[in-house]
Specification:
2 domains, Aminopeptidase, single chain, 9 helices, alpha+beta, 13-stranded mixed sheet
């Protein structure tokens, strides 16, 4: 048996996702949170593979997948979406080697900034990332609550909403919002979300202009959400909660950065509670999110 590393192929992604789910659940169970991850079609992984295959890597031994790493690049931001190793194989240096391969992806892409989202209680991984120049920036909390509880006395947002389409005008608006909120345009990721039948996207408007956007999934999950200015984040999140409340899902959820005081305040006052804590880690100079709510740890 010999350990080998190779670029991922489309036919690897379902098995890689199963490995990721099992590894996440092993970690969260050991830390008292219970199993949290469930298998899903690797749609975004496949999208990323087609867009930029240099960012996805497999560690295998005699045909068995032991580890998986996946990163993507937008503009000058490199993001590590996933890096997981079979719990039975940890301690062999697999994670370190996979991280080196994905960091080479960042170098080849000439990314100025690097970032990732990991579990707050994943101390081993945090140490690995810090050794490679990514440092803790801020907590990100996964909030959730029953839909009926969230909608009680939910304030009306002054922002108007209109559907996101794929016209050049809309893409330009989204690019402007993203550049203000995260420092980078993500047009390809917006086009991915627009082709997801389980996701609804809206532009949020005030006066004669668009000041933000939000996506809501059919399961009641909000994100990504971005605004032009931090002072309108509360109104944007209220509009997203109202949109999520109109779905038939039992729960409403969102990832809220610890720097987004107004969104955190609104969530807590409408019955949403922290399900588990996560952490944004990044290279120096990146990660001041006061105008952005991520979709999930892989999409950002």
């Amino acid at each position: 048996m010999s350990l080998a590393y190779r670029p991922a192929q489309a036919e690897d992604l379902a098995a890689a996702d199963a490995l990721v789910v099992a590894t996440i659940n092993d970690l969260t169970v050991r830390h008292g949170f219970g199993p949290m991850a469930t298998a899903s079609p690797p749609s975004f992984q496949l999208f990323s593979l087609k867009d930029d295959p240099d960012g996805l890597w497999i560690a295998e031994d005699d045909g068995d997948i032991l580890g998986f790493a996946w990163s993507w690049v937008c503009g000058d931001v490199w993001f590590l979406a996933q890096l997981f190793v079979d719990p039975a194989q940890q301690g062999r240096g697999i994670g370190n080697e996979l991280l080196k391969l994905t960091l080479e992806h960042a170098r080849k892409s000439k990314a100025a900034h690097k970032a990732l989202i990991t579990f707050t209680f994943n101390r081993v991984s945090q140490g690995l990332y810090m050794r490679h120049g990514l440092f803790p920036k801020m907590p990100i909390y996964f909030f959730a609550a029953a839909r009926e509880r969230v909608t009680e006395r939910l304030p009306e947002s002054p922002l108007r909403s209109m559907p996101i389409d794929d016209t050049a005008v809309t893409m330009k608006r989204l690019a402007e919002i993203d550049s203000r909120a995260t420092g980078v345009s993500r047009e390809k990721h917006h086009r991915y979300l627009l082709n997801d039948p389980a996701t609804t996207g809206v532009l949020l408007c005030a006066g004669g202009g668009c000041v933000g956007y939000s996506y809501v999934s059919s399961n009641g999950h909000i994100g990504p959400l971005a605004v032009m200015r931090a002072d309108i984040l509360r109104d944007a999140f209220a509009a997203a909660l109202k949109l999520a409340a109109g779905r038939s899902s039992e729960k409403i959820s969102a990832f809220l950065p610890g720097t987004c005081d107004s969104a955190l305040n609104l969530a807590v006052h409408h019955g949403m509670r922290i399900t588990f804590p996560m952490l944004l880690m990044a290279s120096p100079g990146y990660g001041d999110w006061t105008q952005y709510l991520p979709r999930n740890p892989g999409f950002m």
